[in-house]
């Protein structure tokens, strides 16, 4: 699986719209054998299934499941159906994500903000991957890919998004640890790619301003970069280049000096001041 997903089975969460739909379109265009779509929005999911069916002209089997990945019990039930009706996926793209609240941490609500953010962004990818990973490992002869969509917020702290940052930091730590475990246990057929992008113009971060030298990226550009990294089995993808640069600066500068550079010069700490969200 170095050039395309032709003949593979691809499962995408949060697939009814936005970047999830773009991943699905890419899989269909490359001739995937089956594309499995998970989303909680039944209406949008049905529309996407119809459009993908038309585009594939019967060459790709499209399967859809209405799943709210915040419901961790529903994940196991849906995964069981997928294994029975489609089979174990070759490619898993943990794309679903949420951002709740736009205030300081003490203004957030544990039930409405903190819990669902951690469930969808951090726990759901772990639960979903745990359902399908044994099947991937067992087929040592077949290349498999796991893509975990995290965020630059999981690497560089930012005011007014503390819970979101925590959820993505957890995702990054787990995802890269999983990659190392697979390498150490000689499961070379399964490769994990962790993606940490800055702001993307999907509507999720409406009102946010990109820091200096960090433009708000289009979904199409990000999906293209993620797809290439996934096929190549690249361990980590940080977009744009300033995300990686900021990570290096944070590692070499004293805390106060980094705060001054990130906050005053690059404007990272002011990027969420006008956030409104979708």
Automatic annotation (TrEMBL):
GO terms assigned for molecular function: oxidoreductase activity, acting on the CH-OH group of donors, NAD or NADP as acceptor
Keyword Oxidoreductase: yes
Keywords: Oxidoreductase
CDD domains in the record: 17beta-HSDXI-like_SDR_c
Pfam families linked: adh_short
Record's keyword annotation contains Oxidoreductase: yes
Family membership noted in the UniProt record: Belongs to the short-chain dehydrogenases/reductases (SDR) family.
PANTHER family referenced in this protein's UniProt entry, alphabetically: PKSB, RETINOL DEHYDROGENASE 10
Name of the protein described by the UniProt record: SDR family NAD(P)-dependent oxidoreductase
Organism: Orlajensenia leifsoniae
